[in-house]
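quick one before i forget lol
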Amino acid sequence: MKNNQKHIIGIDEAGRGPLAGPVAVGVVCVSEDFDWSLIPGVNDSKKLTEKKREEIFKIAKKFEKEGTLHFAVAMVSAKIIDQIGIVPAVRLAMKRALKSIEKRNTTVNRGISNNTQVKLDGGLEAPDIYKNQETIIKGDSKEKVIGLASIMAKVTRDRHMQRIAQKEAFAVYDFATHKGYGTKKHREAITQHGLSSEHRNSFCSKLLVL
């Protein structure tokens, strides 16, 4: 990215509602003239198949290596979610991801107030230092930069849940299939086996007497 270009940052989260696992926030930064035809199919991650999300993730990683775009995903654990609540946890993950972007792209850091436009999905808000920000309802479907942020967050979190699913301590919960969401099978496993260290106790209070 050239230093004199204006930038657009897209922000979205994944994993706000699951009973287990971290919440993830994805941040994508591109120049305002970025050619989105280079990454076909970008949309709300929930509207895409897992295969398509993985394809887009790999393309974005390639462009990041080339310096065409920057992205970061930060995750906050179930333990921290229980300690501070989901909304503060999302804010914390967003702050960490933005800081990562700023470190890698000094133009964004210098132009936080004027040169950078931030677009966020749903009810998300960026830190006040980003003066030029806009929250867009269903932004992950309307704005490619938000859609890509949602994909990067979703893929990163899903891969994390698949990795921990391989550990013996979590085998009974089948995290690789449902990624921590409250499916019938997952709820039954909680009822039968109790909670693991990856579960959000505050989200599971109706299932067990904690």
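fyi The beta strands are 7-14, 23-31, 70-76, 116-121, 133-136.
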